[in-house]
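Q: what does this look like with iron/sulfur cluster bound?
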Amino acid sequence: MRDIITEIAKKYDADVITFTPASQFPKDDTIFKIFPEVKTVIALGFRVLRGAYRGVEEGTVYYQYTTMGVENIEETVMPMAMLRVTSVIEQNGFYAIPQKRNQLIMNEANSTNPEVDYSAIFRNIDAENQMNFEKSAEICGLGEIGMSGKIINQEFGPYFRYCFVLTDAETEPTPKEKISLCDRCGECIKACPGNAITDTGLDPWRCAVYYSCGTGEKNPFMAPDAFLNFENRKEIIDGTASFDAEGAKEILDSGLFYPPAGHSYKTSLCARACDRACYIHLEEKGVLTRKFKKKFRERDDWKLDTKQFDTLKREKEWNFTAMEKRK
Ligand code: SF4
Ligand code: SF4
């Protein structure tokens, strides 16, 4: 059955398929609450096309990454592959429970998922309602959790997404080698325009703000009068503003610069700079097994002039002064 599953998963666009005995998961892992009889965890990994990142790398086309690199993989490609795999397992008389991340449900009470609209998320519904996707991907040999918090795959680097099927069928496990790709180079930290990643991990609310709004230097759709009603406007635009979750929501409510994709997916106006920096670094080191004829970064990184934001700020202050004088 393992060969048939692998064949069907590949036919439906999975790039990496692994089989892991459930006994390799911690005894208190959520998989045993979801399906106590689980014997095998099947992991399905999907590349995000390098071409889907090309537009955001060049600053030319933004919707392709979000529609083709996020929404369609999560909501079309993955479900199709999982449905076919689960059907094959059921035809053989076993249970097969598909596990795709629900982007709109969070275990945490006050966190967010930067890829979707924060107001569409349901939080703290049931602390055990979802697998720990990153940790499970690591256990299943799909990759390593990097400093940016994302799984880095040996073949595709951070350009990678994944899902799982839990089954009571026992199959031969996939042999796994220890994956060691993240060298803590810090390129993802440097690349984030909103300073959302630190040595201690990702701040999801900072990431949500800058994923969705970008910065003046990096968001070509940011109008000159963006965030005019914020006292710390300059800092919001340059990526250095301090804010908590409530502050993040206010900024997000004022920062719609580009239409979202379907399923509440926001368009990435930080251009997924952390992923790209990581990919470029790993490609330069030559450690990714999928090779291309050309390097991903073909020319110097770009940034926009931000003078228009200063001018408007000054005009607003001047108008204020004029109004004061009239009183
Ligand atoms: S950019 Fe460097 S530090 Fe960040 S995840 Fe990639 S390898 Fe690790
Ligand atoms: S580059 Fe974008 S996705 Fe990456 S941490 Fe920063 S805001 Fe988040």
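The two ends are 83 Å apart (CA to CA). Residues 2-167 form one domain.
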